[in-house]
Amino acid sequence: MGRDRPSAVPPAGERRDDRILAATRVLAVVLVPILLTAFAILYAFPADTGRLFAWTIRPELTPMVLASAYLGGGWFFVRVVHESRWARVSAGLLSVTLFAALLGVATVIHWDRFNHGHLAFWLWAALYFTAPFLVVATWGANQRVAAPPRPEEVCVGPVARVVVATGAGLALVQGLVMFVLPSLMIPVWPWLLTPLTCRVVGAVFCLGSAGLVVLVDRRWVRLRLMVEVEVVMLALILVGMLRARGDLYPDRPLTWLLLGGFIATLVASLWLWRVMAALERGLSEG
């Protein structure tokens, strides 16, 4: 099966010990409070985005969906700070880079929609104009000390691998279509979107691309944190859909398809996590 392939040959004397570099941890420490603050604003006060956020977001379900990405990202970067192995976190940084890059592009495209007189906007712009470069540079530097697979590591089975890769691929395609062709998605989407919010929600979907790591490496150690983040995000989105159920269009087929897909994905992710955790326990006890 697939294995990690180093992105570059390390300098002489560089240790391939799979450690997380200090620069990677520093970046995580900087991002965690930003992400958690944004989550608190958008999820607790979705009706007050005009006063508290970079631009006014309507209806209330959209800021809660974006907030789910922020809490998922907060959990991810907290784990980056505390993890000892690069393999556990490496897959997530590339999807974060894509997410941040898309939001940076959306900011430029819809510049006039933002509240330029609000400090939150300039924090938003500074974050998304710099984060894609910082995150991908950090990933590249840390990848140079990535270690080869360990023979005793638990691997995802072939069926689960196909399911995960298919779901990740569909999320990526969905997100890119929403970003590139908002006029195609807005008329059928389960709740009201504008071109800007369609692109933002599309960027959130693109975070699911982290699951594509199973195509090159079937070790559970590469996927576990991605599944945890997905569970956090899906649970928050489903609660948000319940809170803002009045924002949903029940007569649109995609409403029920999306709701069913979210529930099915959440259940499948929890089942996979439970099965793989049991296999890890069995290996450690054996």
TrEMBL record:
Annotated keywords: Membrane, Transmembrane, Transmembrane helix
Q: What are the transmembrane regions?
A: 20-45, 65-82, 89-109, 121-141, 162-186, 192-216, 223-242, 254-273
Protein name stated in the entry: NnrS family protein
Q: Which organism is it from?
A: Terrabacter carboxydivorans
